[in-house]
Amino acid sequence: MKPAAGAAMGVNTTFSRHWRKMIVDKVQTESGLKEEYTIYKVPRNIRRCDTEAYTPRVISIGPYHHDDPNLKSMEVVKWRIVRYLTRKDDGLVRRYLDI
């Protein structure tokens, strides 16, 4: 016997509501953890143990390795990501930077 179309739709609606609530709860929980994040500079005495361990190979985040020519190719990708994340809200970057 085949379930009625209305029954299947009810299950999908219930699942959809549950899924949306789970996402909203997760975002609220995660966003409440910490407002500001910091990437700390590794102290020199620790870096000396293994200098390559703390040097980015593909992409840099933050100011410490900004001008490294080996990481320049990813600069374009980082700006594409910013553009993608802000595509629905043109004012987001301005508000974030308080321009």
Quick overview of this protein structure:
The chain has 99 residues and is mainly α. The protein has helices spanning 5-31, 44-47, 73-85, 92-97. The chain has one domain (13-98).
Question: Could you list some keywords that capture this structure?
Answer:
0% strand, single chain, DUF247_pln, 99 residues
**What is the gyration radius calculated from CA atoms?**
22 Å
Beta-strand percentage range: under 5%
Global morphology? elongated
Helix tally equals 4
- The computed structural class is mainly alpha
Show unreliable segments.
Answer: none
Can you count the beta strands? Answer: 0
Number of domains: 1
Q: Could you give the order of the helices and strands?
A: HHHH
Query: What kind of sheet is the major sheet?
Result: none
